[in-house]
Amino acid sequence: MNRREAARYYLNARVLGPALLRGRRWAAEWEARTRRPWSSSHLAPPLGISPRMKELVARHWLEGRYANLNRKVAWVTSGAPVEFLKALDFYVLYPENHAAICGTARRAVELATFAEEAGYSRDICSYARTDLGTLLSGRSPVGRLPRPDLLLACTNICQTVLFWYQVLAQHFRVPLIVIDTPFIYGQEAPPHSLAYVRRQIEEAIAVAERVAGKGLSQARFQLVGNLSRQASFLWLEILERNRHEPAPISAFDEFIQMAPIVEMRGDAFTVDFYAAMLREVDQRIARGISAVYPERRRLMWDNLPVWYRLRYLAELLAERGVAIVASTYANAWGELAPLLDPDYPLESMARAYTYPILNRSTGQKLATMKRMIRDYHLDGVILHSDRSCKPYSIGQMDQRDQLIEQMKTPALLLDADHNDSRCFAEEQVSNRIAAFVEMLGV
Amino acid sequence: MARPPEIPRRSDVTRAHKAKGGRVAAVLPIHYPRALLRAFSFLPVEVWGPPGLDYAPGAAHLQPYVCSIVRNALSFLLSGGLDIADLIVVPHGCDSLQGLASVLMDFVQPRQPVVPIYIPRSHTAAGVAFLSEELRELAARLASCAGRPLDTRDLWEAIRREERAEGVLHRLHAERLSLSLSNLEHYRLVRSREYLPAEVFTTLGESALAAQTREPVGGTRFVLSGVLPEPMDLLSALDRMGVVVAGDDLIACGRRVYPPGDSDDPFERMAQGLLGAPPDSTRGSSIDARREHLVHLAQRVGAKGVVFCLVKFCEPELFPLPDLRQGLREAGIPSVVLEADLNDPLSLQAQTRLQALAEMIA
What span, in angstroms and rounded, lies between the C-alpha atoms of B284 and A4? Predict the structure, then answer.
């Protein structure tokens, strides 16, 4: 990097941009304090921490915009072991998060169309189509994505990411690291699976060091691992506060606030952010503020959110006094926290990254749901049958049946897609939810 | 044309095997260790659907966006089609097969034990080491199902039989153009590997190879890629159009020709063989590797076109498709994509597209 590029990077990504974003955050906080009373008669006002989250996310993407001037860039899957990349000072970008931002901004279909016109089938994951559309069109709601120097795909969430990242590797002609995590059909991963994952992480570190042009500092690796663990524990604590009745936040709040735990794991400011969020959630409980008022029924959401209809679904349910207080998806980013041990980073990473809910059996997922129904005192479950996510969705039909039969818990299977609004039939969804809520006796 | 070899029927073969005291393992796609199953007297009989089935029973467990190979397999099981099987083996080939195995084990719980195998996507030594261990663990499960321990001599004998059959299968593909068989006859023979004991297949294959002609089979040469040659009417349609399938890059066929391993350890040798097959997305092969293989195959056999036979919702095949077609275009080889549900007959539209490609080339 020459001096001019360095100056440009620091000026834009570290000085002007952050100052501007901080100013925006202050303005948003000021507005929240002084604006007219919150308009919804059923939903609590947005969390006070929200402007800070928006600032964090915007800074992350702003830095990404200039990252190629100053840092090595890695594109990674959401469940990948990123700690060694962070410790090697990579700027880490999550294409899935970018796709979710496009979905929330209702830009996903526009972008996916570029991919479909290039020959990518509408039957492949809508996150992948959204991001491939961004690559092909150069369009993105976050401005510009930095070019990767390295790709890291971990199959602990699906096999789709393997095929998706192979397309990226073809497009960018950069090294692709695959960390292949054998699916756990039973209760526990066999030792040879964990040894296999550990060996791949060791090989991945060597590749990342070569791309970074420097060696991995064990002290820094442990520090990042520790920060990652702390943030995950705080996230888990926040989620568990929803055991309180009425619940202080909804799963829709969690979907919005989970961006840092996914894409900024291992950073100190992420720990600070979730510590502050936990304080605010506790204040809500102390003041008797509930996410939905009156809270008549408490439900769980299974599978990814429907990013382009978050507000619609939140209001549709809140109007009927239904609060979504737990979700298997948000829970997935916290439940592995106890497995991470910074003193044994490789061993614990191999284990933690083999055990996400999506890499475990349909029966284990049902067991998690049953546990959450008990812990969160839930009255029912909405299972989002997500056309774009087979590993999450296959098994839901039996899970629904067993929840109804064994737990006597009403459960609804709702057909949609996490990012492709063409698969969302609003009238049908509205009718099905209305009938379900009626069945819940609301 | 010489008379095609008489191929025993699947149901006759399985019944005969059972009558001799053997066991039957119903095996889902894609890659699995035949020799290990045979060492325990399990005859592997593959379940690729089957096509043209009422999939209503499976629809109670699987959403409509799950591929028809998986939905049909579950429907077939639930409607009693696999009653003859003593064991169900589900290799991990994709998210849908993973889900099927899990749903079977956790919810459907059929009478037969369900045994999954994870096929590694890593192409380094770590992958071979993992698969060797995975096969050892599978051997322990099979020993429990069979009620007897593994006899290493049986395993080595089975490995040698399978390697010989693979050699014959390799020749049937490589020497396709000198076999006086129609497309349909050729594929019936090649796909009989899905259920015939290796020694029976070897005999049949060798007899077909012995009847080779000196002159290559005439006709416009195509390569098939994609998942599997279904509906089989496709092959008859190609026969009628004067097209000969000269090369095969299908998951069910050409990508399952396993070279012999070279290890003295039987498990490592089986792992080497499984991971040494031609590039395949379901084993994590890169797009570059697949493209090079496909273009080279098409050029080697003098193919004028490539037909991608896809099954709807098959992500492993759909992701690399644009790059593969681009690679073929750059090599001057046109291609056509036929995407279907396994229960669909060969549509007139598909026939017209094939005809158009054949005529354009001619």
Answer: 42
